Amino acid sequence: MTRRMRHILRDRASQVLTRRRRAAIGIEAVLTFPVLLVLFGAVSQIMITAQARGYVEMAAYSAARSALVHKCPPFNLTQIFSSPFAAVAAFQCKDQPQKWEDAARWALIAASSTSDFAPSRGACPQIPAAQRVITGTGKTGGYDAAIKNSICYAFEPENVEVSVEWVQSGFSLLSSANSTPIRAKVRFKYPLSTPFRRFLMDGKRGDGTYWRWGEAVVVLR
After folding, report:
1. Best label site of 57, 80, 93, 211, fewest CB within 10 Å?
2. How far apart are the C-alpha atoms of 12 and 140, rounded to whole Å?
3. 10 near 4, Cβ under 8 Å?
């Protein structure tokens, strides 16, 4: 075999090996792409959920602040016996739970879905204040629909649960101090939208959307 033939065979063998390497790399890329896609979706959903967690905590804080004003003062024997006016005021006082619930929902708008699923479910109440927010400052750069959808999701009744209570002890019932703590608990259905949502969901709606419960508790004095 001449030297020329040996060079030709060596070049062809090298070309075959190069093609095989490229084919192997292509197959590996095809096989790893779904895995990378799932990992990317999982990381994205975790980041979105972590950010939404901050909004839920802010919602609980807003509910507690509102309840300090709109929830009747806790029962206190010392104050009632020391002042007849305090007894009458305690008897006539009425809680306004809608106030602290609305405060929580307003804080959750930023964590709500901008899709049109919530309005299409027909469970979105009319919020005059929200309409004034949208129209009162003029155009919002073409994001009117997204803002309306977020407000609708936050105010959809089943998406938010708010509970508020005074944290009283036996001593606070007899004490004349006005520093009884108040506890607010907020539960919110995080909207899940990434491909990883099926592994994180707590529930699925009839329209195909997924959600997961988030919860936060805040105590104010």
Report:
1. 93
2. 64
3. no
Chain Cα centroid distance, residue 80: 41
pLDDT at 215 (0 to 100)? 92
d(CA 183, CA 219): 4
Of 168 and 218, more confident: 218
Confidence band of 29 (pLDDT split at 50, 70, 90)? low
Strand stretches in 137-181, DSSP E: 160-166
- What strands, in cross-sheet order, belong to the sheet with 160-166? 160-166, 182-192, 210-220, 203-204
First to last CA, the chain: 96
Rounded to whole angstroms, the Cα distance separating 54 from 108 reads: 10
The residues, any chain, with a CB within 8 Å of residue 163's CB and separated by 6 or more, are: 184, 185
Q: What is the pLDDT of residue 110?
A: 87
The pair of three-digit structure tokens given for residue 184, joined into one six-digit string: 């607010």
* Cα 48 to Cα 66: distance, rounded to the nearest angstrom: 27
